[in-house]
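ugh ok fine here u go
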Amino acid sequence: MMNSKEILMVAESVSNEKRLGKAVIFEAIESALATATRKHHDRDNLDCRVSVDQETGEYETFRVWTVLDEDDEEFVAGSHFTPAQAKEKDASLEIGDTWETKIDNVTFGRISAQTAKQVIVQKVREAEREIVISEYRHRVGELVGGTVKRVTRDAVIVDLGGNAEACLLRDQMIPHESFRMNDRLRALLVDVRSEQRGPQLFLSRTSPEMLIALFRIEVPEISEQVIEIRAAARDPGSRAKIVVSTNDGRIDPVGACVGMRGQRVQAVSNDLANERIDIIGWDDNPAQLVINSMSPAEVVSIIVDEDKHTMDIAVEEDNLAKAIGRNGQNVRLSSELTGWTINVMSVEEMAAKQQQETNTLVGLFVTAMDVDEELAEVLVQEGFTSLEEIAYVPLDEILAIQGFDEELANELRNRAKDAIVTKAIASQEDLSAANVAEDLLAMEGMNDELALQLAGKGILSMEDLAEQSIDELIDIEGLDEKRAGELIMTARAPWFA
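structure:
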């Protein structure tokens, strides 16, 4: 039988070795002794409890019965009392209460001692895991450093010290980089999970936040909040872009991040497998910010469509490849960085596109409002892009056009309003003919034009729309992945109500 002196020695040595409180060790020992007791009696359903005196190491063993209704599916005759049996022991016992009686401490043989050891080891591991999780849970989003402990086909296991291991999955590693045993590395802690086996800390070296964290280390002005990194985008291991700003007019934020002779940005690049990093100055004007982000390409002209959240950018033909970048890298990173969809084209392509759009608008105004082509061209040149604009802009804006008087302005507004009404009536007739359901028309984010396009694909109700995938909708004009996803989720909302 394990004596009191041995129990105190085990608690002392394990507590010191594993950096765990003695209370945790004593709890593990009590659990181990209870498990060994059940094994000794060869009864897994025997419910028992062991209480160890933490001062003397002496312990007592108790057999425990829980009061349950005999119809309860968990009721086991050897471990539970029926309410009637419980009343015989103690009249105050109710269902859910427990009743204990002291039993002899068993003498442990080799097998019982081995069982106790396994339980203690398991409890200690669980306690160690909880310590690691509690230590790192608040550090998600921080850079951590460690030594490569093991390399597998799917991941790199990193020893962070203090019994903490982290997992760097292959898809979170920079392409083509490799690590060997005992290599030092830094990565961003992106997740902390409580799992039964293996690492609970997960790392990433591809996250844009890692780039920001590295600059925070290399550029004191960032950690001091004199300079702010407004956004970052990466093509890991190849190229990255960050946008920086400052409220201190005496400081050049781009220059501060580059450092003298490029030392600061080079230090960050070296930690990211020589990733090329563009540092861009912030601008409150979205168009100028996009122009800055397209560096090193020089933008000749830019057209902003706020409704579609897109920008068309024109560059000289010999600058087109640089603007787009290898495999579209430059324009893709600029789009991620600024949040705008960017379309890059040559000056000639931009002119042709503008002419085509102008011809389309001129044709619309001529047909819908029954005006001559010359008058329609004037309206387009003055910036009118829809019948709604002509119908509802302040009268002064139309009167500001050279040669337009109040009579002409009112006539144009009335014709535009009539055209809108006619179009709406036709649209409602088309929707009715297509048997489009009212719930689809009333759905948030829906309009008649979009509903007609959906009807053309056989989508006539919210239920029809809810069953679609994003890929099935993005070929519809004016729908990008984001809006298509939002419409589908709105249509699916009744499923989760």
